[in-house]
Amino acid sequence: MAKGMDMADGGYRSGHTGAFASATADAAGLVAGALLDAALGDPRRWHPVAGFGRAAAALERRLYAPSRAAGTGYAVLATGAPVALATAAAWATRRRPWLRAGLVAVTTWAVLGGTTLRREARAVADSLAGGDLPAARQRLPHLCGRDPSTLDESDLARATVESVAENSSDAEVAPLVWGAVAGLPGLVGYRAVNTLDAMVGHRSARYRRFGTAAARLDDVANLLPARLTAALTVAVARPLGGSWRGALRTWLRDGGHHPSPNSGRCEAAMAGALGVRLGGRNVYAGRVEDRPVLGDGRTAKPEDIRAAARISAAVGAAALVLTAGHALARPTRRTLWRRIGR
């Protein structure tokens, strides 16, 4: 009996050690990948996400039909294939923590976009500060799909602040959350879902039905990250010269008015933190959307873009600390759940 207990205890310790090594590798990979993104931004050539986009576009050409069923099949295949590959890679590296950490780091770097987001936003701010509206209009499509041809300075500033707020979640917080929760498959799966939403998840005539599954999948994937982004915006606002009370009040009051169940939370919190008014009329390739106003402050100015970028960077840093800690604590959480379940 004692011998059997010793063997069981030894097996448990071995399994716990392996789980701790995997958790440490995932946490270290998230941190290393975020540091790579901070130092280098998006890969300039051979970007894996761009490669996925080309593959997804080719798959769409084969499967497209103006129906929700076709769109659902497309979304399942386009997300399932990369997730299956990532799951296989995670399994293959389960006893090779250094290799696992390196793989998670490279993947994290590939799926994050916070540094490039803020770089592009500051470039718009620089153009506006220099009075160069044509240059600012030319750069805006790097951030969002809005038609910039008729936008004035305040409209360009508003569009840029909104993009920074929304994509602080999509490009930074959400990938980190899914990497902490599900490791390598979470990183890859989230970026696949978010990319599909950008490709087919909008309300054009072609994608109104075909893109429904991709859009709903993205909504679900961003439910927690968007709210974490809003909460972190509240937390970092005051040290960066913003209003935490305004961020919290506007998030809770106006966040649910946005047509997206997620973007509005991020944008409303940013509007309140900066004391500006976001939302209103947007034009996308001839399609006009009148969105609810978020916040009750002044119109956005070029300097608000820089303030939004600073808040975005702080939100990303805070999210990294939280998500890396969550990944590292995974074995401890499992041990506690086992003891509670006894």
Descriptive notes:
Residues 2-12 have low confidence and may be disordered. The chain has 13 helices and 2 strands. Helix 1 runs parallel beside helix 4, helix 2 runs antiparallel to helix 3 and helix 9 (223-237) runs parallel beside helix 11. The chain is mostly helical. The protein has one domain (44-329). The chain has helices at residues 2-40, 48-63, 68-92, 97-111, 114-129, 133-139, 153-200, 212-221, 223-237, 244-254, 263-274, 302-328, 330-341; strands spanning 278-284, 287-294. A two-stranded antiparallel sheet has the order 1-2.
Key traits:
342 residues, mainly alpha, two-stranded antiparallel ribbon, 13 helices, globular, disordered N terminus
In a nutshell, what does this entry contain?
The chain is built from 13 helices and 2 strands; from the N terminus they run αααααααααααββαα.
